[in-house]
């Protein structure tokens, strides 16, 4: 029977991949590519309008490959669609200014937030969406599948087996989506070794690898110097421990990054011990290995930590504490951002983090008019997962509070921990989030709200705790928020009589209502008062980055 001339071809993606690989082969580019030919490789295997996933994590960066991409000829490579969880380095933005890329889908932009905002205003970049981490990883396997990915690993053997070390982070999600959908995987590695300590990415998933001129950049993002923690942050931490963690018996949790949460971590061995809370709270974590967790670990508060990524200087300490961290036969931790995000979303009972703006409905965002920082994992960690089907004391108690005891599901606790004013005396509490203005500038269908107000259960400021679960009307919710908004314009417009009524119902609780002695809220309560103290707690196994050493 004669073949149908209009019969559909089912292997166009594989054919395109082979065409690219053959083009590289014709130029003498083998699997191990010299680093001085990296740009040539990229211009050979990437084509116009390709979806290119650059490994830019919270900490670990494919910095050499990103820099090479930014040096490609825009006449050869242009209109690329970049998929990237974190826009962290100057080269991540350079490719848009040079016209090599025109569209981006990302999660967080931290250090590049200002440049990104400027490019949006100049209409030099099109933002597809600002995603949560899990959302972006999920789309890698649905409709944002990379044609090419640029990743980084600690080492490779001659065959191209990769060892990612403690900072595995996004690598598995990126590679699987690319390698199993006819994409091309290119890795930069710090060193070529005879045998990798463990195989994190098998060689047959890797098309090309390059020994970079210098080790990939890793940002010590989660290191907080205890010397910078203030008395106000200590007071807020005391309120969280006594007013939220203790009554809800929070054992499984995630902390966002910041000095506020570092203060909580450093109060566990002191204030937490004083309240007889060891074994009752903060036992199981989805958390990067914060150095400020060391005293709590050493004091016996912590049973386990699964990490999104690692932290510079913590490798030896982690290796000495395999009962706490997830480590391999090589002794080193293997982190995994996708798995830890999933654990934080479904297996944790509480998320506590901070934000730049909160409105009167409790909506919050870190995306402001002049700074598009994105969200990272906060919308996942800071949301009530309706897919959850297991219970715990805190989950049940929060659900009962929200519904006057009539529950068919519980509630995850989502806490916003903020001082009422941030830098330059800008109020955290606002009538309207900048997100609405940004929506217009971005041409987005939705305003870039980080955590929706109906997911937020508690707001904690230096004034006290607002338990939004107990609010029964929008008016009560608004006054509860105003009631802890301090001397901001939002706080000054509170209905004093209504706020006192809410206080009588324990919807608002001041430090004195919780029996907290404010005179004790000082640095004497910290288990470690300096980075040097953290090193002592670790028995010398914590090796802080040089910029945190002052001794």
Automatic annotation (TrEMBL):
Q: Per UniProt, what is the name of the gene that codes for the protein in this document? A: mdcA
User: What molecular function does GO assign, one term?
Assistant: transferase activity
Q: Which Gene3D superfamilies match?
A: Glutaconate Coenzyme A-transferase
Q: Which organism is it from?
A: Psychrobacter arcticus (strain DSM 17307 / VKM B-2377 / 273-4)
Q: Which InterPro entries does the entry link to?
A: MadA, NagB/RpiA_transferase-like
Q: What is this protein called?
A: Malonate decarboxylase, alpha subunit
Domain of life assignment: Bacteria
Q: Which NCBIfam families match?
A: mdcA
